[in-house]
Amino acid sequence: MTYLAKVGELSLKGSNIEEFKNRLASNARRLLKSANAKVSGNAGRLYIDCDDEGAARFALEHLIGITGWAKTAVVEKNIDSINLAVYEEAVRAKEKGAKSFKVEARRQDKDFPFTSYEICCRAADRASREGILAVDVHSPDVRIYVEVRDRCFVFSDAEKGRRGLPVGSSGKGLLLLSGGIDSPVAGYRMMRRGMKIDCAYFHSYPYTSEEAQKKVETLAASLGNYGLDTYLNIVPFTDVQMRIKEKAPQAWTTLMLRVCMMKTANLIAERTHADCIITGESLGQVASQTIANLNVTEHFAALPLLRPLVGLDKEEIIDTAKEIGTYETSILPYEDCCVLFSPKHPVLRASTEEAEAIYASLDADALIQEAFEKREIKRFSV
Q1: Whole-number Å distance between alpha carbons of 198 and 271
Q2: Where does the chain show beta strands of DSSP type E?
Q3: Per-residue pLDDT tens over the stretch 216-242
Q4: What's the rounded mean pLDDT across residues 198-226?
Q5: pTM of the predicted model, to two decimals?
């Protein structure tokens, strides 16, 4: 079986386009490593020859960098073979309830004796003449595509791809992964910009349960399917959190927790050679995410702090979570450490100067270093 995928925005790249294409093909091979598959590319297309339909579908559904894909018939490069293949596609479409069709053709091989328009006309002949489907060039029920390249492909029912840039083409980030809805979506959105990600999770046992950790591990595994793999750093944060509860003003406990997480993230990012830190924060969504408070957490970051959800509302974030398969896990009723220690009236307009003073009063550097050194690392592969 052969599958054809349409390359996305990387086709607009300049002199380094081959690097992006090679990365995309390499990523496809990694997603198909358990299957006997051949991956090749040419002129804005990626071709996968694979006898395992389930493996091929999984790979193409998770491959970032393609705009669409389809299972395709590969036929001889002559108009009779194309006409027959289009007819067979039309029969299958009619069985699914279609009543009209349109043929769209692309002739990349200029030695082929018919133009794209002529291919469309001739390829639709039998299906139309035998009354399988009516021709409708404006709003057809099904579009049947013919592409004449080094081989000839005929297909319909193209599936939407993930779009974006191939994972690994835009550096590496450290995602602060909680058990909520937002942070997995933030990681996914950065992967779509070509970023490879590792994750950090802050666990406060016994105040957060083992089930809460398993929930985050499941989310990391889901992200690993799109990012080819990921490492989850599980940081024991109970002592740090208790120090905050003991010494920080109550209104500042959530924000100080964010600050201490950022200080720990700096250490992990340095160790893992990350280029940036990623969070799932969205402006104004909760009290710790006012513009003043976001400025405070960013003040303590040693690397660029990326917030891919900053301008999205909750419904947009939820829609993406459902699309990538993390939503049902994220809504499981196991609370993370941020929720359990939230003050009733949190500070809304923090200043960096006051934050610096309160953080210094915690005397938490040694605890943060200890938490970093005691972290557990788990790998989640495709």
Answers
A1: 11
A2: 2-7, 37-42, 45-50, 66-75, 100-107, 134-135, 142-148, 152-155, 159-160, 172-176, 196-203, 229-236, 276-278, 305-306, 376-381
A3: 999 999 999 999 999 999 999 999 999
A4: 94
A5: 0.92
